[in-house]
Write a structure and sequence with these properties.
By secondary structure, this protein is α/β, with parallel strands linked by helices. It is built from four helices and four strands; from the N terminus they run αββαβαβα.
Length: about 140
């Protein structure tokens, strides 16, 4: 059926785009100098914080576990807010204050233009970490 196929294709594309975004964000978090990233210094252990809303499914799909397996010493801690409107209000407060942000922040697609225009300096440009080399792998 075309409808089911389109839904499956759209879901696969969304999952792939999410995986790329997460991978790029995780690379940026590991390579960046974020004050929020938690490290113990001596053992080189890093905790990456991820703050999301709704159900992204990264943890459930095993993406964090796979990343942690490939990168010993890295732990990923995710926090969730069920309602995007509540999440958005909290995120705006933290962006305005310049503190309390996770290493990786989920942004609703409909809010990306606004956030990037008004708060661009608060986010890391993943092209500095090679994200451009991944663009041909995704729709």
């Amino acid at each position: 059926m075309p409808i089911a196929r389109a839904a499956t294709t759209a879901r696969r594309t969304a999952v792939r785009l999410g995986a790329v975004a997460l991978t790029g964000a995780l690379l940026a978090a590991c390579g960046g100098t974020s004050d929020d990233a938690s490290t113990d210094g001596a053992g080189g252990k890093v905790t990456i914080t991820v703050d999301l809303f709704g159900s992204f499914g990264y943890k459930e799909a095993g993406l964090y576990a796979e990343y942690e397996k490939l990168h010993p010493g890295v732990t990923i801690k995710q926090t969730d807010t069920e309602d995007e409107a509540d999440y958005w209000k909290s995120l705006q407060t933290r962006l305005a204050g310049g503190a309390g942000l996770a290493d990786v922040q989920g942004i609703e697609v409909g809010r990306i233009a606004s956030v990037t225009q008004q708060q661009a300096e608060r986010f890391e440009d993943l092209r500095k970490y090679g994200a451009d080399s991944l663009k041909d792998q995704f729709a």
